[in-house]
Amino acid sequence: MDIFLLRHAATQSNQEGRLSSGMDDPLTALGCQQAYAIVSGLLSLRLDAVFCSPLSRAVKTVEPFLEASSLPSERHPCLAEGQLVLTNDVPLVPVCYQNSSGGVPVPCSEESPGAFLQRVEHAKDLLLSQQYPRILVVTHGHMIRELLNSFLALPSKTRFPHHNCGLTHLSIGEQVTVGFINRPLIT
Hints:
Blueprint: E1 2-7, H1 12-15, H2 29-37, H3 39-43, E2 49-52, H4 56-69, E3 73-75, E4 97-99, E5 105-107, H5 113-128, E6 134-139, H6 141-151, E7 166-172, E8 176-184
């Protein structure tokens, strides 16, 4: 199985240099341009399915590609953004979801680090349970970082860079291998 992790396009928080794990941070005009600019690069990956965070910045990033490809897609609240966790000694705790103003399930607004890390494990299990050989996951920087830490079973937290529309490739087999991290799709 090949899993491609894509960080969403540019948002207002990104432009202002702020880390945003908030639920609704829309794409900027640049982000909308990026969403269209990555379509040909994503088409070249010969993907079989798309899994996406329910947050609007991820959904809007992948919409032009979905229109061009007609691939099956699913939104999963476990793929929503979380928080920066810098230590391995955070105990996992149950996850809490609530409905957004649009009625879409999202993580509870006061999510603990342990609940976020539990969601990462749910996301990993979701991806590993798929029969699709090539999957695109459209999500957020903190989620990508934690998925990499989990899939690679790293002994200590590693902070991987993730630029807007940066793509990371994992091959899952007897071993997990990394093809690339944070490859730009826009040149």
